Amino acid sequence: CHRTKRACHLSYLSGSRSSKTFKPKKNIPEGSHQYELLKHAEATLGSGNLRQAVMLPEGEDLNEWIAVNTVDFFNQINMLYGTITEFCTEGSCPVMSAGPRYEYHWADGTNIKKPIKCSAPKYIDYLMTWVQDQLDDETLFPSKIGVPFPKNFMSVAKTILKRLFRVYAHIYHQHFDSVMRLQEEAHLNTSFKHFIFFVQEFNLIDRRELAPLQELIEKLGSKDR
Question: Which residues bind Zn(2+) (predicted)?
């Protein structure tokens, strides 16, 4: 595979059972500046140095860099979760948890204001639909050059990434055996490591929110020192 490592593993994943992708993929339009940034990200990822790959490219706008990567993480998590949806059911996962100590209740602040307890598949469906709505909102995630990002962009991006983390946490705690059986642990680990290095680089997720996977995060980080 001559393309970047991640482009290869994405094509590998999309060729496997994840053809029934959980949500439609969010495409960044070809020829756009954001598309160029995405290609830059993929090229630097191919070098294998993830700490370097997440750094803001020289002369680039921080909001735009965070926007492009947020879309990319949404697509990656979408694909990873898509491979295990048959194992994540109302019966197997009646609550949205990340191990015995962490349980999440859903609220989006608009349609559902008071947090509701629901099954993991329901929660993740709510979550991914909510994220997609944010990404599709041109006032929040402008795709045209020269259209400014809103003043609250950073707080929106932080909320999206905080919630996407919960999908990784649920997969690791409740479905890692299925991931192993599908021989996808390398893809999951690479994707999660990239995600963690990114949010650490720009301080995007509160440390307390990362607690369910703290040991794993420390392990992944220590290999890179």
Answer: 88, 93, 170, 175
Considering only 23-32, 56-65, 121-130, 198-207, which range has the smallest mean pLDDT? 23-32
8 A C-beta contact, residue 141 and residue 29: no
Kind of pairing, strands 103-104 and 96-97? Answer: antiparallel
Q: Among candidates 182, 174, 218, which has minimal Cα distance to 200?
A: 218
93 is in an annotated binding site: yes
Q: Is 40 a known ligand-binding residue?
A: no
Report the length, in residues, of the chain: 225
Residue 8 assigned ligand-binding role: no
What Cα–Cα distance (Å) separates residue 109 from each residue in 93, 97, 112, 116?
24, 21, 6, 12
Tens digit of pLDDT for each residue in 202-214?
999 999 999 999 9
Q: What is the pTM of this model?
A: 0.84
Q: Which helix (H) or strand (E) holds 218?
A: helix 214-222
Write down the H helix ranges in 17-152.
33-46, 50-53, 62-82, 120-136
The C-alpha angle with vertex 33 and arms to 30 and 38, in degrees rounded to 5, equals 70
In CATH terms, the fold of domain 37-42+51-222 is: Butyryl-CoA Dehydrogenase, subunit A; domain 3 (1.20.140)
In angstroms, the CA 121 to CA 87 distance is 10
Beta strand residue intervals within the chain, DSSP E: 96-97, 103-104
If you search the block for the tokens 């830059």, which residue do you land on? 40
Q: Using an 8 Å Cβ cutoff, are 167 and 127 in contact?
A: yes
